[in-house]
Amino acid sequence: MDVSSEMVYPLVPLFLTSSLGASKSIVGLIEGIAEAAASLLKLFSGVMADRFGKNKLLMGLGYGISTASRPLLALAPGWGTVLAARITDRVGKGIRTAPRDAIIAASTPPERLGLAFGFHRALDTAGAVVGPALALVILSVWVADYRLVFWLSIVPGVVAVALIVWFIKADGPVPSMRTQPLWSLRGLDARLTGFLLVIGLFSLGNSSNAFLILKAEHVGVSPAWISGLYLAFNATYALLSVPAGMLADRFGPKKMILCGFALFAMVYAGFALATSVWQIAGLFISYGLYMGVADGVQRAYLATLIRAEQKATGFGLYHMVVGLAILPASLLAGLLWDSIGPAAPFAFGAAMATLAAVLFAWFLWKDPAGRDQIRIDQAI
Questions:
Q1: How confident is the model over 248-276, as pLDDT tens digits?
Q2: Which architecture does CATH list for 2-168+187-379?
Q3: Model-level pTM?
Q4: Please, which residues have CB within 8 angstroms of residue 34's CB and are 6 or more apart in sequence?
């Protein structure tokens, strides 16, 4: 599915601004609304997965909806249709994400959660390497023909849905119904609440990656080579996800998460100051380093804070917090770009990441003895 998604995603902001004449604020609005629209579905889907045990069904439905959004994007006459296509795509992601992460957590020994989620992110991102590579080849032959890329992205999406239908094991027995709603915060680990607060704050400065792409275009990177930079970003992300997960299992996930916040702050500060193509290229690779260090490890740490019967709900809550923050983050980034300049959204993101790192160290670092180790009764 990431082959399909990443063929499209790096080109959407360019399609909006160059082909449809949309402003940077419109780009931020579209990306923010699309992510926010999916956010509540991530929690709802997690609750439904925990209550009815339909992980495979929800995964397949989510991937199918995302694939169905591609023709709408390819036929878009204006930015309103692009918004509809992006919302449809993100709704699909909202439905599938929590059940998928819950399956990974439930089928992994507690002491290997970092490796498992790192392996998942590596495989997921390997598809994201192929997608921009295909887009790069297509755009090298058919220059700036974004609609052709959107049409061709349907093929790997259909293949992904077919793989789910044919090869993912059927769901097990339906769990017993509970009287207490699974989205209740009662009984959740206090560390989970603190972690979600920190992640929400950090996410306010982590605007859509569309602004990284727009920054590359602003500096002078061609549309074809923007896909190439996105390929390099995803390749770095994929290669580092498994080693980062293994380090998290060895030394504790909190150290890796803190390093991730610090690295993000440095990368975004670099984007604020960058003025050359080579600087942008190095920063895209560095951003892949951040994603490899942080993304899977955050999910592995989260898995240690959630009871077994609330795994999908907990992941849904996490993804909801991140997704809801994307709307104000992207709107603010677009407004800062249009009113102050291209450096402003990245300077703001670096500042928020620094603040999140300080709060994470303050609130979550000093647990009682042994709390940095995975609690077996919570993780299995």
A1: 888 888 889 999 999 999 999 999 999 89
A2: Up-down Bundle (1.20)
A3: 0.70
A4: 83, 86, 87, 89, 90
